[in-house]
């Protein structure tokens, strides 16, 4: 174990949805902590831009195209990461989407799409990295949940169901794979400024302000606010922490 419990030097992280928002915020923090990083998303141009943001030494960074809801695509992503870096120490299941509508108006195809990406995607990626982590006797899986892992939300029936599922997926992976030296935990971000939430600010100012009024820290979060908890859960500092879901929300869940 390193003398610096939070050191990520020599560690390899695979971050789905690492080309923007919260995923890129975490990737930047991991890069500054010395990790090798593969980021994967659907949009190749966005991924190329994100790689250039991470730093000049591109031997430490890899950009990949993936659809996390497609098993073959996920397996290729993991294989490509292993081909470049030889191992995966950390998996961040961050890729996610939201489609807003009320439950009684929600279309089955939208339900399936959200569940397939947000929940099934995290399952497929975890399953795909398992063998490499098991064979080396260590690994960290960090799933990105949400406030809707805890609360109901009228216009987010599929999203909230997927994020509730993330908490139970996390517990089950933790229980199943502890014997293999793998820890699985979740981060539950509060309300964070990203592309995903830009529409609330732009189109629903009342809702944006109402949310703000419930945040004790009195501000929406930024992607960089997730960095410290992600480093903790990715590093040796959390070797006896598994199966938990940590809100990073400016106090929203305590209010
Ligand atoms: P963004 O929209 O900025 O990021 C979403 C990321 O997911 C993008 O990088 C996108 O990449 C990727 N992605 C979406 N679908 C797929 C797919 N099928 N396969 C691979 N990658 C995909 O939003 P956030 O940064 O806000 O969201 C990141 C995570 O954080 C999500 O899981 C979200 O639910 C969660 N979250 C966000 C909160 C917030 O307030 N912003 C609060 C709580 C949780 P690409 O465009 O290239 O496909």
Name the features.
7-stranded parallel β-sheet; alpha/beta; Rossmann fold
Explained architecture:
With 255 residues, this protein is of the alpha/beta class. The chain is 45% helix and 15% strand. A seven-stranded parallel beta sheet has the order 3-2-1-4-5-6-7, sandwiched between helices. Helix 2 (44-54) links the parallel strand 2 (36-41) and strand 3. The longest helix is centred in the middle third of the chain and has 29 residues, at 108-136. The model has no long low-confidence stretch (mean pLDDT 97). NADPH dihydro-nicotinamide-adenine-dinucleotide phosphate (NDP) is lined by residues 16-17, 19-23, 41-43, 46, 66-69, 94-97, 117, 144, 146, 189, 191-192, 194-197. The site of NADPH dihydro-nicotinamide-adenine-dinucleotide phosphate has 29 residues, from helix 1 and helix 6.
Distance between the termini: 38 Å
Mean pLDDT, all residues = 97
- Biggest sheet details: 7 strands, parallel
Strand arrangement in the largest pleated sheet: 3-2-1-4-5-6-7
- Beta-strand share of residues: 5-15%
Write the layout of secondary structure elements.
Layout: E1 12-16, H1 21-32, E2 36-41, H2 44-54, E3 61-65, H3 71-85, E4 90-93, H4 108-136, E5 139-144, H5 157-177, E6 182-189, H6 195-203, H7 205-213, H8 227-234, E7 245-248
Parallel strand pairs: 1-2, 1-4, 2-3, 4-5, 5-6, 6-7
Helix pairs in contact: 1-8, 3-4, 4-5
Briefly characterize the structure:
The protein is 45% helix and 15% strand. The chain has 8 helices and 7 strands; from the N terminus they run βαβαβαβαβαβαααβ. A 7-stranded parallel beta sheet has the order 3-2-1-4-5-6-7, with helices on both faces.
């Amino acid at each position: 174990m390193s003398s610096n419990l939070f050191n990520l030097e020599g560690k390899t992280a695979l971050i789905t949805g690492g080309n923007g928002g919260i995923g890129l915020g975490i990737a930047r923090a991991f890069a500054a902590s010395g990790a090798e990083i593969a980021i994967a998303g659907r949009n190749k141009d966005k991924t190329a831009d994100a790689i250039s943001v991470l730093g000049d030494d591109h031997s430490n960074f890899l950009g990949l195209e993936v659809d996390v809801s497609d098993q073959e695509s996920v397996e290729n992503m993991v294989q490509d990461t292993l081909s470049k870096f030889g191992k995966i120490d950390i998996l961040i299941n961050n890729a996610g989407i939201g489609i807003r509508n009320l439950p009684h108006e929600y279309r089955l195809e939208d339900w399936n799409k959200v569940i397939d990406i947000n929940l099934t995607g995290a399952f497929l990626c975890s399953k795909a990295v398992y063998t490499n982590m098991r064979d080396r006797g260590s690994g960290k899986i960090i799933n990105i949940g949400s406030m809707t892992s805890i609360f109901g939300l009228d216009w987010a029936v599929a999203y909230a169901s997927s994020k509730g599922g993330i908490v139970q997926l996390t517990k089950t992976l933790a229980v199943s794979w502890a014997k293999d030296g793998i820890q699985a935990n979740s981060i539950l971000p509060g309300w964070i400024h990203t592309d995903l939430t830009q529409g609330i600010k732009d189109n629903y100012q009342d809702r944006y302000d109402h949310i703000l009024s419930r945040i004790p820290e009195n501000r929406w979060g930024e992607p960089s606010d997730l960095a410290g908890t992600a480093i903790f859960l990715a590093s040796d500092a959390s070797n006896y922490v598994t199966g938990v879901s940590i809100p990073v929300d400016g106090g929203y869940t305590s209010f």
